[in-house]
Design a protein that fits this description.
The chain is of the alpha+beta class. It is built from 13 helices and 10 strands. The strands form 2 sheets. It has a 7-stranded antiparallel beta sheet. It has a 3-stranded antiparallel beta sheet with strand order 7-8-9, with helices on one face. It is elongated, with a radius of gyration of 27 Å.
Amino acid sequence: MKIRFQFLTFSLFVFWIGFGQKPQLTENSQISLLTCATGDQLYYAFGHSAIRVQDPILKIDVVYNYGTFDFDRPNFYLNFVKGKMIYSLSRRSFDTFLFEYELEKRWVKEQILDLTFEEKNKLLLFLETNYLPENRDYLYDPLFNNCSSITGDILKGQFGDKLVFDASHLEKQFTFRQLVRQYLNINSWSAFGIDLAFGSVVDREATVREHMFLPYYAMNQLKNTVKDGKPLLKRERYVLDYAERERTSFFPLSPLFFFILFLVFVAIITHLDFKHKTRSRWLDFSLFFISGLVGVALLLLWLATDHTSTPYNYNILWAFPLNILVAFLLIFQTDLPRWTPIYVRICLGLLALAVLLWIFKVQLFSPVLIPLWAALVIRYGYLLHCFKLKF
């Protein structure tokens, strides 16, 4: 009976707004930030943020969710690759929103904002205007325009200079890459893929407000934000109180395990080649083709997409795009071309440059790449040895 009554009041709220009549919240209303725990899927790995509006007098209890996307949207995956992901603001009842997190046993924390009657209605009007069909879609960016960072943008837009984000609670200000790594097992395929795709642009220190692209940081920032010299946060509580998910991994399925195996394999084949004075052309083809293919993909992410996090990606120093062409020359020609030592030395020099950029923190690379880099060095060195034998 209670659920049916809540459904009717929510339907009345939607009907009310559908006819352009913006509801005026009462003094008993509350607006709060909901922070949801991390989940098992990659798109849940960083948690989630949403805004709750409730008014017990008007029987309103709805959640405004900027993290809504649709897999069935035309060209969804193509737009994802191109960096043109469209997300939407959705609005639904609080009970409906909470059901998913109850089902997955993920905690949900509510932080009630200390706002005046006028500020609550102004914020509601802003949310409702954003929810209009012509306004609800927006261009998503995982670092600068997502469900969590929008929270800080909304609050700053509503209160301007009256709102101050204090940084005293941060032990240090991290780079974007460091922040992302805090929520992923660095020896996982998802972390490896993200590290590989990210360019050096994410290795700059994020501002206090930019830290809020992560829901947990947005939640903690709210505790350290003042409006008109007073705490913005009125009080907080757990709506669902479940334990934090533990990140588990199985080493034999991790990228580091596979790359170590690959290094051992390359070392053994190279040793046999050295012993029998031969060259495994298929191995050279595989190394050059795969590294070149990765380089081409990274170059396209850098130059041919709208992603803000992929430019200036110096992974192309070891995954050299030209390798994809050289691969075919190495497999179809029995003898090494005369330009081989020059090209291989250039590749070794570029790899050394990548190491220097890592040391000086121009760009941080995934540490699981080390065995792969070692395999490339072994094979590059052997190609130089083979050329000397021929000439």
